[in-house]
Amino acid sequence: MKKKSLTFVLSAPSGAGKTSISNKITGLVRNLKHSISHTTRPPRPNEINGQDYFFISREEFQGKIDKGDFLEWADVFGNLYGTSVENVQWAEKENCDLLFVIDVQGAETLRKLKHPGIYIFLLPPSLHELKNRLNNRKVNTPEEIEKRLARARKEIFHYKAYDYVLVNEDLEEAADQVRSIIIAERCRGSRFDPSQVDLDLETPD
Ligand code: 5GP
After folding, report:
1. Who has the most CB within 10 Å: 38, 98, 102, 199?
2. Is 14 in the pocket of ligand 1 (CB under 6 A)?
């Protein structure tokens, strides 16, 4: 039986833990795939092309914008990031749901496009903790960390536009909350398809 794919959009300031959560739950929730974005950012030492991102040049990215290949795209910290339309088509074909891990601008674009989705916002417990996490992951220079913190101060106000808001105090707990949201959303009455069961649900006695 073919069901419409659901899109789960997870946004958070940089360093709030969305990538760790996404990695955790895509392994735990059946039929959920992380939508792999395209980016012009150079890969970090542990990142794999086609797995973490599709790493492409600015020219290639611009070519894709021109062809209308992206459902949404944004400039984040001077690099371009985009979600391809192909990802959504692929999920429909594979009968699975998609998790978009994108910034607040991308989520805003999707809302403007009326792209049906379940929007989840992840907050750090404090800016102090966010700074610690950015320092601990050792992938950004002190200048980059300051830029990310300045941006986080603005991004946190976007939480009101999301369907669900959670605080990542503890990674296991936050991942469990995201997983619960996904499972509950899949069970919404409005999404139930009577042909799923061998019951006569049309004729009440
Ligand atoms: P990073 O460079 O740390 O992997 O990601 C920087 C920011 O870009 C993060 O907030 C991440 O969620 C966001 N991002 C990743 N992929 C996309 C995308 O396809 N679209 C948008 N709008 N943001 C993205």
Report:
1. 102
2. yes
Residue 185 tokens, joined: 């959303």
* Model pLDDT for residues 178-195, shown as the tens digit of each residue: 999 999 999 999 999 888
Query: Is residue 35 packed enough to be buried (19+ CB in 10 Å), middle (13-18) or exposed (0-12)?
Result: buried
Evaluate: CB of 81 within 6 angstroms of ligand 1: yes
CA–CA dist 16, 11 (Å, integer): 9
Residue boundaries of the structural domains of the chain: 7-187
Determine the 3-state secondary structure of 26 from DSSP: helix
Report helix, strand or coil for 81. Answer: strand
Q: What is the pLDDT of residues 125-157, one digit of tens each?
A: 999 999 999 999 888 899 999 999 999 999 999
Q: Helix-strand-coil percent breakdown of the chain, rounded to 5?
A: 45, 20, 35
The whole-angstrom separation of Cα 70 and Cα 82 is 6
Cα 102 to middle of ligand 1, angstroms: 5
Instruction: With beta carbons less than 8 A apart as the criterion, state whether 7 and 85 touch.
Output: no
CA 119 to chain centre: 9
Whether the CB-CB separation of 97 and 10 falls below 8 Å is answered with: no
CATH for 7-187? 3.40.50.300
The residue assigned the tokens 């601008």 is: 105
